[in-house]
Specification:
Blueprint: H1 6-29, H2 36-42, H3 47-50, H4 57-80, H5 87-104, H6 106-115, H7 121-148, H8 156-168, H9 170-173, H10 178-185, H11 190-194, H12 196-199, H13 203-209
Length: about 210
């Protein structure tokens, strides 16, 4: 299998660079206080040079939304649909993967949360759809664990908010590089995540930790 054509590869690299500069400026000045010219200037370019990649700052923000919300949803769905009958193992794998993703994309995720009030109606819908897709990837696994007796009986909807809320908080409290999360922070994660039988006894605590 051949890789992308050189021109396509260059375009992808340039788009990624635009997204990185835009993320930094949106975080520093806010979405409303940043123009596409500001993004171009931070890269040493003129505004027209960016038109080949993005026509407006709204288009830049839309790309961030799609990548940071739809990106993890499909992978989480694939993990949840594995043939492994052990729901606790699948849930642990999903949480491990999601925390690693969140920490690896920390700046962008925090930016989207901060900028949610600035989103256009269309962008808001994309953002919410991405979060719903992630939610629906995790909820059936928790329901499977409850049905099989691996987890104590609890409302799957509430428990899913709790698990995702705990994972989402990693963007706020975690500052170590993602590679350290893989080696240290999650190595012993299974006992906590798979023991939903303990956590599920306190659904009000779970619901309170959700960020949705």
């Amino acid at each position: 299998m051949t890789g992308p054509a050189p021109a396509s590869r260059r375009k992808q690299l340039m788009e990624n660079e635009v997204l990185e500069h835009a993320t930094r400026l949106f975080a520093e000045r806010g979405f409303a206080g940043t123009s596409l010219q500001d993004v171009a200037g931070s890269m040493g370019l003129k505004r027209p040079a960016l038109y080949y990649y993005f026509k407006s700052k709204d288009e830049v923000l839309d790309r961030l939304i799609v990548e940071e919300t739809n990106g993890p949803a499909e992978d989480l769905k694939a993990i949840g649909e594995r043939a492994d009958p052990d729901a606790a193992e699948r849930l642990h794998t999903m949480a491990h993967w999601l925390v690693h993703w969140i920490v690896s994309h920390r700046e962008r995720i925090l930016l989207l949360v901060k900028s949610e009030s600035d989103l256009s109606p269309d962008s808001t819908e994309k953002f919410r759809n991405g979060r719903r897709t992630t939610f629906e990837a995790v909820r059936p696994v928790i329901a499977d664990g409850i049905a099989s007796g691996e987890f104590q009986p609890v409302e799957p909807h509430i428990a899913t908010f709790g698990v995702l809320g705990i994972c989402n908080w990693a963007a706020s409290w975690q500052s170590r590089p993602a590679r350290q999360i893989h080696r240290k922070g999650l190595r012993r994660g299974r006992p906590t995540l798979s023991d939903l039988s303990q956590t599920a006894r306190f659904p009000h605590v779970i619901a309170g930790s959700a960020l949705a």
